[in-house]
Amino acid sequence: MWKHLNIRTIPTLRLTLVFAVALSLASLPGPLSNHFALPSVLPLAHANPAPNEVWYPAGPAMDTEIIRIYQDQISEFTGLQNRAIDLSDWRLDAGTSSAICGSSAFYCTSQVQERSFADIEFNLANNYWGISMNFGNDPNGLQLRQGIAHLVDKNSFSINERSGPYTPIDNPLPAGQSFGGRAVTYPNPCLWDQNNTETGTNCTTSTTGVGGIAYHLAAATGNNCGTESLQTACTYRWQPGFGSLDFCAAADHFITAFRHGLGITPTRDANCVLLAPGQTSPGAGWPITVTSNVPQFFVRIDDSPRYDLGTSMTQEICALFTGSFASGCTFLRYLAGTTYNQFLIVSPYLCPGPTSTSVPLCWWIYTGASGNIFPFDASLYSTYNSRFVYGAAGAIPPCSSAAGSTMSPANYMFLCNSAYDAASLSIEFATSLSNAFSAATQAMDIFGKHAFTIPVYTPGDTFGYGSNWSGVINGDGIGIPNSFTWLNARTNTPSTGTNGCPASTPLCIRQGFKEPTYSLNPYAASLAWDSYVLSGIYDTLGRENPANPNGIMNWMFLDYQQLSNTQLNYIPPGCVSQTVCNPGGTVSNLRFTLRNDIFWQDQRRVTTWDVQFSYTTLLANGAYLGSSLSSMVCITLNCTEGMTILSPTRFDLHLSQNGPFIRFSSATVPIIPGRYWSANCSGIIWDSDVASGSVPTSCMTTNNTSSQYDPIASGVLIGSGPWKCENLSTNTVGNGCTNTGSQNPPPGGTYTLTRFGIGHAPGSSVTDSYFRSSGALALDIWTGNTGDPTGDSINFSRVAACFGQPVGTTGCTHWQRGIGNPGTGTVIGGIQASIVLRFVFVNWVSPFDSTRSPPQGMVAFPPATLYEGSATFNNCVVDPVNGYDC
Fold first, then answer.
1. Is 665 exposed, middle or buried (0-12, 13-18, 19+ CB in 10 A)?
2. DSSP letter (8 states) at residue 855
3. How many domains, in total, are found in the chain?
4. Burial of 688 (0-12, 13-18, 19+ CB in 10 A)
5. H helical segments located in 538-607
6. Closest by CA position to 497, among listed 488, 508, 511, 513
7. Does one domain contain both 224 and 161?
8. With contact defined as beta carbons under 8 Å apart, do 546 and 482 qualify?
9. Does residue 147 sit in the same domain as residue 251?
10. Are 876 and 820 in contact (CB under 8 A)?
11. Which of 653, 684, 719 corresponds to the end of one domain?
12. At 268, which helix (H) or strand (E)?
């Protein structure tokens, strides 16, 4: 999941990114409940609707990906309309959609409801008008948050927001979440308000997740705003006006908080505006405790619904104190900006702290967002459990001492509530999936009663892109910005000219980013845009099906087994025997077997020691990209006991706790080359250790965890993924892929990523090509291997028996022609045998079967055509001589 967005993996798996993110959000169907229906602001019939594309588990199809950085989505949409880019990364707004979707030059995707939501977030370690939130545990801080929750009519917002439609929500989980075919049950939100009783037919549990019920007493009319003496229409239709039930409820919550938290007794006037003790006019007479602890509301301006939501709520809070609906007042500082400029002032990474005894206190309220949430534990556990705060605060009760020391924490709100921690732990480490669902309902109920944040809406989006493109994948819940789009997208008419593709690599994808990246250091990456770049550089063990997130494929590994301690031939970490373990010791084990044909972009082999380095250092440093590793055994500071290396391609991952999401979480971590990131064993030391078959645990540590560490400038942005960062002038990998020579180019800048494998014939190199290239897939299909151990063994024995036999020998003709042996017929030699041997036991889409039970939405196997740069591969129906399935 992404926390603006949340990152559980770099590709498309479970991401939870940090504070300054936006969402690539998609759409939503019409009536979603018996009390709420959504209009559509987009054309009911697109002039040029995008085709429903199938996805291919291989690529890239193009040679270069050029990423152009913009200041905001408006300038990006202008770039799209002017054909400066081919693909956008942001949902179309109402105005832009009519211009783009009405033109034959563009495709517009069908609407997809995003696995995302937006909310009002609080720094729960801060002081608000003299009342400490106490990490979400102070009852008076709760009163303040419940009061603020009354200041937006979510139903009206969802209907009337200019860039809608949206689905109103009350829980920190997108509407309509499910897992394994079962819908999540959302709690009854009518039981949360401490001061008011809500009733009605909607006061019940729900499996739709449609909200707008919590902390809501009456429909907002959009009237009675302005000032008390001159009441006018509200700026926004969803605002409760003076004297309305919800405006008055908010005032009563504030009064209760001040009475019990500060020992003062404010009142309210006839319009429910707050009056300081003994005062008859608003704004005057408040004690210094209130006036010296004025919070700040940071409102994102680069996302119109979050801007409108934040602006309306600042007006409401100011009206409570001053009797005037103004954006900012002496009782609430208002700051609006973007991630690129003013947002950095209040970033939880850059503002003072955290330290061993303090937390960042330079922000108070923020219009946040979370995206790509799947499964539901990615939000309910991996974002809000207190083990995901900044680790140094673990010494500050009640935050968890298990937290890491990352400067990019998932739980930057510092929510540290023991009841919520217990409930969310029961999700992640439930004894059954059924129990995990029950714990999720309980966790959301606790969250809602405490109003730790104020969830407001789940968006639905449509994306636009050039109509000369095919293979653009409109992923379920994420839209077109996803790793399969960048693998599969292709065109026969790439752009040329000033803003076109470079002459050296004319087959390019031009992707737009609405804002700059934050950091490409995998230990500090925290934005969606960071993950978009890194997902091309680094691979993960598993990969999510873009058409159905329930389907995760074995991407870098052949198979895995879940083993009990007694099935091991050694005593697992944290145990005194195979049956007796200490707390935090091993309770279960996952044994993975890597494919043996995966190489780094510097042509060195990927090994299990790289996996160990990645998992242990990401976990030990509390990196956001390692947040899914919380079940891994970690006893010492560097967590190396969490993995046992059995061979260069086989390892055991040791778990201190079991849970229903282990298959997802254990395979969704980026694999980073230890050679370039190890603090103690970089370069030839690492190479020598690998060659000897033993890399010491002392090598499993890194010093380069700061967001300021620049892997491009340092020349170490090297992965095993489909796209490489390469200096095309010097042909050196790891640097030179931005116009600035460093990470995070500003608006107007570019990233230029090059296909891993460019420069030689597809499939002709194992070491200098992406192991899942289209050429590699074509060769795999040609071999006849399927991944079945028995069948592949028999298949290889047949090839061996045909070695050197005359052309036309019965049973041998398949391998005597086709893509692995081009021509009308040639004897089988060492090259053909090595190709078949390479893919023995490889099932390209395991645990699925590509022909009998394929993953949802995948192209039918064998594909009619595969593309890799300028090369085109056909199956034997199209090319009976050189095809790849003859």
1. buried
2. P
3. 4
4. exposed
5. none
6. 508
7. yes
8. yes
9. yes
10. no
11. 719
12. strand 267-268
Percent of the chain at pLDDT exceeding 90: 79
Please indicate, yes or no, if residue 303 is contained in any of the structural domains.
Answer: yes
**Domain range holding 575?**
542-719
Whole-number pLDDT of residue 196: 94
CATH of the domain at 321: 3.10.105.10
Question: In whole angstroms, what is the distance from residue 517 CA to residue 714 CA?
Answer: 17
Half-sphere exposure of 134 (CA within 13 A, CB side): 13
Based on the fold, state whether residues 552 and 592 are members of the same structural domain: yes
d(CA 329, CA 314): 9
Determine if the peptide bond prior to 305 is cis (ω within 30°). no
Strands 365-370 and 296-300: what pairing? parallel
Model confidence over 630-680: pLDDT tens digits? 899 999 889 999 999 999 999 999 999 999 998 888 898 999 999 999 999
**CA angle in degrees (0–180, nearest 5) for 440-445-451:** 120
Q: pTM of the entire structure?
A: 0.89
End-to-end CA distance of the chain: give it in Å, rounded.
42
Domain finish residue from 397, 429, 458: 458
Tell me if 639 sits within 8 A of 702, measured CB to CB.
no
Is the distance from CB of 339 to CB of 301 less than 8 angstroms?
no
603 and 563 together in one domain: yes
3-state secondary structure 535-555: HHHCCECEEEECCEEEEEEEC
Q: Which of 66, 86, 64, 79 is nearest to 751 (CA)?
A: 66
The CA distance from 190 to 206, in Å, is: 12
Alpha helices for 571-716 (secondary structure H): 608-620, 662-665, 674-677, 684-692
| CA atoms in the 13 A half-sphere facing the CB of 254 | 28
Residue 732 is encoded by which pair of tokens? 């050196």
* Residue stretches of the chain with pLDDT short of 50: 1-45, 340-350, 353-354, 356
Q: Which residue has the tokens 């020391």?
A: 405
Q: Which amino acid is at 353?
A: G
* 454, β-bridge pairs: 120
Q: What are phi and psi of 868, to 5 degrees?
A: -145, 100
In terms of C-beta distances under 8 Å and separation of at least 24 residues, what long-range contacts does 675-680 make, across chains too? 675/600, 675/604, 675/610, 676/716, 676/718, 676/734, 677/613, 677/617, 677/702, 677/704, 677/716, 678/613, 678/702, 679/703, 679/704
What is the spatial distance between Cα 846 and Cα 854, in angstroms, rounded to a whole number? 9
Query: Which uninterrupted H or E stretch holds 315?
Result: helix 304-322
State whether 142 and 76 are in the same domain.
Answer: no
From 434, 537, 446, select the one nearest 60 (Cα to Cα).
537
295 and 151 part of one domain: yes
Instruction: Give the Cα separation of 687 and 675 in Å (integer).
Output: 7
* Angle at the Cα of 113 from the Cα atoms of 109 and 117, rounded to 5 degrees: 130
Amino acid at 516: P
Report the amino acid identity of residue 73: Q
For 346, the token pair is 């209040």
Q: Say which residues have a Cβ less than 8 Å from residue 457's Cβ, sequence separation at least 6.
A: 117, 118, 154, 157, 158, 161, 166, 167, 168, 169, 305
Q: How long, in residues, is the chain?
A: 886
CA 167, 13, 54, 857 dihedral sign is: negative
CB atoms within 10 A of CB 791: 13
- The verdict on residue 42 lying in a domain is no
| Of the candidates 753, 164, 751, the residue with the CA atom closest to the CA atom of residue 513 | 751
Residues 64 and 147 in one domain: no
pLDDT > 70: percent of the chain:
92
